[in-house]
Amino acid sequence: TNMTLLSPTPSHFHMPQNSPKNKNVAVIGAGSAGLVTARELHREGHSVVVFERENQLGGTWVYTPATESDPIGIDPNREIAHSSLYLSLRVNLPRKVMGYRDYPFVAKKKPNRDPRRYPGHKEVLDYLKDFAVDFGLIGLVRFGMEVGHVGLLENGKWKVSSKKRENDVVFVHEEYDAVVICNGHYTEPRTADIPGLEVWPGKQIHSHNYRVPDPFRDQVVVLIGSAASATDISREIAEVAKEVHISSRSATSGVPLKLPGYDNVWQHSMIESVGIDGGVNFRDGSKVLADIILHCTGYKYHFPFLETNGIVTVDDNRVGPLYKHIFPPAFAPSLSFVGLPWKVIPFPLCELQSKWIAGILSGRISLPSKEDMNADIEAFYSSMEASCIPKRYTHNMDDYQFDYDDWLAAECGSPLSEEWRKQMYFISRKNKKTQPETYRDQWDDDDLIIQAHEDFVKYIP
Ligand code: FAD
């Protein structure tokens, strides 16, 4: 018998037969993605264990002065420092935009909190701690436990092997009905491939290991990249360095341009090559004798613990094949990923992704057939190819994140994205571009702040 035929609810809200509603689920990581995933799974009635290799929650938002032994992060045996935060970091989204949808990130009248609209990083960690306490999540987390291996068993369950981080020998092996991967993707550095780097005599460092500007004092620095951290770090270093030369893909060729407002910062084209004499040769024909190359060139998706017999791969930073950036069809719904999209507002996006996963695991929401999911993925990849978008942009959602969020929200029966959040996001993005030094302290969208507060009233006791 087919229960869906008897069901009065819409076709995609049905209860599959023969499978218990409540699943045993392992969540890997207790950052902002893993925490909200734990909450959604728990709310849906699943049993949840969160594995977290650090001794505290928060992932990216746990600042550490420690850096890695290999400053460009190539040595596979290096001790990993998870977070890429630098000491001075302030968020790059207005806090009201940034927070989870039903747990507003508003200023709190408590000691040692940072009420600014674009607060420093510690305020985010404090917010995540509040979130974990308010939803009773701490008890679900196994701190100091690193997942070393995840693989499918013949009985359809997943074997999860974990160990105490400081103890490399004793593994705990367990079986789970499902695994949700929330391990973050700002830890494994990606560096530019530049001819001559192997003989170039200067120092190299990846922004993952950048904390404070002091080591750059009086140095001639070439900084590669133009994304968020490159913008912040280049300005911070300029205060102490002798010269800062920014090399970016986006800079047009032609002569190097002085950065407005600075007398020791230049914008260059991409690097052509570097030489044994310490020279850095740019495509625009200019050459600089530099002491340090700072790679602000982004990160790689990295799942060293995941064993899928080659079914799920990372190819030129495309994690695939994945339906809606979440489920590999071959293993859906028992294996899923939360938090892969970038150029997005991560907290609310992860909230919706995990709500959807939780509802699918309990059978309240259903997935299309494997064939239909694969066809959807194929169509997505083909459309990228037709538009000449490189593979490494697969999870870049820049212009369609709100469509994506709203698609998930509709699946979950949740409210769509708030109008103020969309507008505030686009305004802040524009301001960040046009006034990178001042956007965190000057704005003129107070009307949207008021709208956000009117909306938040229903969530703030
Ligand atoms: P993470 O926070 O990285 O958490 C992953 C967790 O998984 C970690 O705690 C890690 O220890 C754990 N883990 C990994 N592997 C294992 C394993 N094998 N076993 C057990 N545990 C494991 N976002 C914003 O919204 N606003 C901002 O202003 C902003 N600024 C940023 C600035 C920088 C420099 C960076 C790098 C990111 C910034 N982000 C910002 C994005 C930020 O990464 C996300 O906000 C978010 O914190 C990502 O959460 P996550 O849970 O996906 O990953």
UniProtKB/TrEMBL annotation:
One of its GO terms (molecular function) is NADP binding. It is an enzyme of class 1 (oxidoreductase). Its cofactor is FAD. The keyword Plastid does not apply. The keyword Heme does not apply. It comes from the Eukaryota. Its EC number is 1.-.-.-. Keywords: FAD, Flavoprotein, Monooxygenase, NADP, Oxidoreductase. InterPro entries: FAD/NAD-bd_sf, Flavin_mOase, Flavin_mOase-like, FMO-like. Belongs to the FMO family. This is Flavin-containing monooxygenase. It comes from Nicotiana tabacum (Common tobacco).
